Amino acid sequence: MSRYASLITLLIMALTPLSTYAKVSAEEAARLGKDLTPLGGTRAANADGSIPEWTGGYVMARAPAPDAQRLPRTFSDITTDRPLFVITRDNLDEYRDMLSQGHLRLFEMYGDTYKMPVYPTRRTGAAPEYIYEGTRQNALKAEMTNFGESIENGAIGVPFPIPSHPQEIMWNHKTRFRGASLKRYNAQIVVQTNGDFIAHRLREDVRFSWSMPNAKPEDLNGVMAYFLQLTMAPPRSAGQVLLVHETLDQQENVRRAWLYNPGQRRTRRAPNVAYDNPGSGSDGLRTNDQLDVFNGATDRYNWKLVGKREIIAPYNGYKLIDNRLDYDDIIRADHPDQDLMRYEKIRVWVVESDIRRGTSHLYKQRRFYVDEDTWTIVMVDIYDARDDLWRFQEYHQVLLPWTQSVGPAGHMIYDFNSRRYLAMEMMNEEPLFEFVTIGEEHFRPANVRSVATRR
Predict the structure, then answer these.
(1) For 366-412, where are the alpha helices, taking DSSP H only?
(2) pLDDT at 176 over 50
(3) Which of 35, 52, 221, 356 is at 20 to 30 A from 93, Cα to Cα?
């Protein structure tokens, strides 16, 4: 019977377009900016007030002086907060129901040193008005097709602010507002069991075409983002360039990627920059689809929308992003210095993925926790083929109040088998990011070699 049931399910999927999960009615869309935030989160406080009402997010009229943009004193109304409480191994049972499986495993393995300082919840999420307006239009027009692998009739803002399908939530994460065009510098740090580490320093040029002011679906040429990554250090990897054109159709117009190898002085197509192929400079601690927590196609999994949950998660990591800290001040054996971390009680969408029969991936199952205010995936529990918890991702986001865009303060991937971890998107010792206009021509494959040689 199970075989026949599976065949019937596949037939229904083949005959039912996923666009039926997308557009909402005008009455539903009218909730945006009223009982829902302009991006689709629940505006009201929770029952006991521990999660407050959203009142517009954290907005600053203009950027502070360049030297102050990553210093906590710039955000004094947040960073002067004191922890409400600190979760330790001794009081863990009081908070167990509000923690991810990954955090519970960290306490199990490293409870002598691991702790979670929990602060008042600050609903800082915000975006520019044109992103809000684009989101309102998307709610009425955007469609998800090709079994969740494509977006049509959408641009600017969140495509599915009132989601009814798990892959819509994944698209919301992939298209969330992170600025329109920028140049940023960051480090990917492989941490060994004794605390020794090597930092891979990167420069990344990004054009989020989807988020450009006045972007229109017909003008995107099927590409939502352009990404160029130049490795600056260590010396053995310096000069390597990865170029990616991230498409809006992950099935028929798949991701286009190229790699430039400075030793060979050649640019080659790189079809393996996807799925569970190992990410560069990670010493095998992450897969390609774990960059930015999750990216790329979703077609190797069956997806399930579990629903909303109140949970304690990394949030508002302004202390962690402080550029007065060196990496030596942050990195420790087993886990970073937890005194620099900030956790808050927030509402998240919970989405689960299980490997689809006939496909393959290193990760059999993943559970994603997605912030309702920014659509950022803040945590992921990752299971292996034996259904054992293998890895855990923890994304510490910040909102840059003068741009109203979200970005990373740090992204940790813990490997429970090897007892090592990867600290990604760290910027403390790196040059300050720049919001600059970068044209599409910069991301042509023919331009890759000149980028590498100009570094």
Answers:
(1) none
(2) yes
(3) 52
pLDDT tens digits for 316-333?
999 999 999 999 999 999
Residue at 280: amino acid letter: S
Domain map (residue ranges) of the chain = 66-120+173-454
Q: What is the pLDDT of residues 85-117, one digit of tens each?
A: 999 999 999 999 999 999 999 999 999 999 999
Mean pLDDT over each residue of the chain, to the nearest integer: 93
Class level of CATH domain 66-120+173-454: mainly beta
